[in-house]
């Protein structure tokens, strides 16, 4: 399963969230660090739940920058 992620630049670096997994977010000083951190967060989220949540279709003004297989 691939989950799209939304990356948003901030004053401190980048924040990143996975819209298909409510509450799954992370951050990093660089975009690469933020993407590595969200990949870990997605794995932890999925390993901690008994069933995978369905993908959520929603509008995100910042778009999606990447997705990671789980």
Main beta sheet strand tally, sense and closure = 4 strands, antiparallel
Uncertain segments are 52-63
Radius of gyration: 11 Å
SSE arrangement, N to C: EEEHE
Mean pLDDT level: 79
Strand order of the largest sheet: 3-2-1-4
Terminal CA distance = 5 Å
Report the count of strand segments: 4
Output the number of helix runs.
Answer: 1
Helical content band: 25-40%
Structural class: alpha+beta
Morphology call: elongated
How much of the residues is beta strand, in percent?
Answer: 25-35%
Q: What does this protein look like?
A:
This protein is α+β, with helices and mostly antiparallel strands and 70 residues long. Helices cover 26% and strands 29% of the residues. The protein is built from one helix and four strands; from the N terminus they run βββαβ. Strands 3-2-1-4 form a four-stranded antiparallel beta sheet, covered by helices on one side. A hairpin with a 7-residue loop joins strand 2 (14-17) and strand 3 (25-28). It starts with a strand and ends with a strand. The relative contact order is 0.30. The model is unreliable at 52-63 (pLDDT under 50).
Q: Which secondary structure elements does this structure contain, and how are they paired or packed?
A:
Layout: E1 2-9, E2 14-17, E3 25-28, H1 31-48, E4 66-69
Antiparallel strand pairs: 1-2, 1-4, 2-3
